[in-house]
């Protein structure tokens, strides 16, 4: 969750990042997808698998810079290897996945969210940032 960076952005602190790529999805879009599936019923969605991703793909560095810029802040995001971070093993494994595997994925990861709710309702990361920037401004 990128909100974990809020205090560091607010205070202009350096935020070490890995090279992983991510496709952040707005939780409101996930709720909209769930509503569509429930309203349209099992006839259309039973047994289906939908991947929840956003319409954009960014590195952590890019996401933090977008967030900082929207708040009028400046932060440095030095790139570090996921294996060098002093975090719990489970988190390190997730970061390694993001760093090593996800960059080989196709951009965007998929269109399931846009197909379910309509691409005009699919929240971009920049839109989400503009709507939520008071959390770190």
From TrEMBL:
It comes from the Eukaryota. InterPro entries: NAD(P)-bd_dom_sf. This is Uncharacterized protein. It comes from Physocladia obscura.
